[in-house]
């Protein structure tokens, strides 16, 4: 475990350095070293590129990736479904619908309103899914089915607004929905970091509860767990974590599905081990996606959400193929 974490940390450091060095204006490793260390020989333009543009971007990518991976780990355990991710709770569709409403129906909304709308939309949709699934208690199957239904409804509303909205407004919304960290700044990084500290810490402290609920409601109750309370708290934490990531970077898909599966394959089923490995894996995925999106067709850029989709779609197909003989 220690060796694996060490490897992942060194991989992450390499990605950070590569993200700082490569882009529209590539820096040599010597220039990067001089810039980071504050050498008198450092070029002022390089200082601005590294500290004002690229460093906030890579830090935001790391936070978003770790948050999505942590939320995905919670969703997989609570739903007891290998294909579950935070989007099953309606987080993505709720955020998309809310942002589309703000951009299309309001006249020149302030940029700061979009993340707030995305977060509130995610929270509202998750609350609706949970309340509608309550029948003297909850079950993972009801939550998944109602989540799929409400997500489809929100998706239809988003499509309707995009059909009749002004083309400029719709394009602006599509850029946000594609998922990107291009508008990162240190203030946004600090806000997301301080927001995530408590819910992510609580999630990691709840590893034993997730280990129990993963075995099923009856087994968990027989071991003394208050299943409905634990499920509700875990869904709340998942919403707070994933909703904040969506608000900061838009819809960066599949990270919450891919990272927890990779982590469980590497360290086994214990959530105390899965959480740190999944967080590092998710951070690496989003940082890599952002780096690839910046350099593959430079100076044009691909949003990180598109790149993660290109990675996640084959992985999703692999999961389905691996379960083709599983009993329904």
TrEMBL record:
Annotated protein name in UniProt: Iron ABC transporter permease
Membrane topology value: Multi-pass membrane protein
Keywords: Cell membrane, Membrane, Transmembrane, Transmembrane helix, Transport
Listed InterPro entries: ABC_BtuC-like, ABC_transptr_permease_BtuC
Provenance organism: Mesorhizobium zhangyense
Gene Ontology CC terms, in alphabetical order: plasma membrane
Pfam families per record: FecCD
Segments traversing the membrane: 58-79, 86-106, 112-132, 144-165, 185-205, 229-262, 274-292, 304-321
């Amino acid at each position: 475990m220690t060796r694996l974490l060490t490897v992942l940390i060194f991989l992450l450091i390499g990605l950070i350095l590569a993200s700082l060095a490569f882009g529209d204006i590539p820096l040599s490793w010597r220039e990067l070293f001089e810039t980071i260390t504050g050498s008198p020989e450092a070029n002022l333009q390089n200082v601005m590129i590294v500290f004002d543009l690229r460093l906030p971007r890579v830090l935001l990518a790391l936070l978003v990736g770790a948050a999505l991976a942590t939320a995905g780990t919670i969703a997989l355990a609570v739903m007891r479904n290998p294909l579950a991710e935070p989007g099953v709770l309606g987080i993505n569709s709720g955020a998309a619908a809310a942002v589309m409403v703000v951009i299309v129906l309001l006249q020149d909304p302030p940029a700061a309103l979009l993340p707030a709308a995305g977060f509130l939309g995610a929270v509202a949709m998750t609350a609706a899914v949970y309340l509608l699934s309550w029948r003297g208690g909850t079950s993972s199957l009801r939550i998944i089915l109602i989540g799929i239904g409400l997500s489809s409804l929100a998706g239809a509303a988003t499509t309707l607004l995009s059909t009749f909205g002004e083309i400029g407004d719709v394009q602006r919304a599509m850029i946000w929905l594609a998922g990107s960290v291009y508008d990162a700044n240190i203030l946004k990084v600090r806000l997301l970091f301080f927001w995530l500290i408590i819910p992510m810490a609580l999630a990691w402290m709840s590893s034993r509860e997730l280990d129990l609920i993963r075995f099923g409601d009856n087994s968990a109750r027989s071991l003394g767990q208050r299943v409905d309370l634990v499920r509700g708290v875990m869904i709340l934490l998942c919403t707070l974590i994933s909703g904040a990531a969506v608000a900061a970077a838009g819809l960066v898909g599949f990270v919450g599905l891919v990272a927890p599966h990779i982590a469980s394959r590497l360290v086994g089923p214990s959530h105390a081990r899965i959480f740190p490995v999944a967080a590092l894996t998710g951070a690496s995925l989003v940082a890599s996606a952002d780096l690839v999106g910046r350099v593959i067709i430079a100076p044009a850029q691909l949003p990180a959400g598109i790149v993660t989709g290109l990675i996640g779609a084959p992985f999703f197909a692999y999961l389905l193929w691996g379960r083709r003989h599983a009993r329904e």
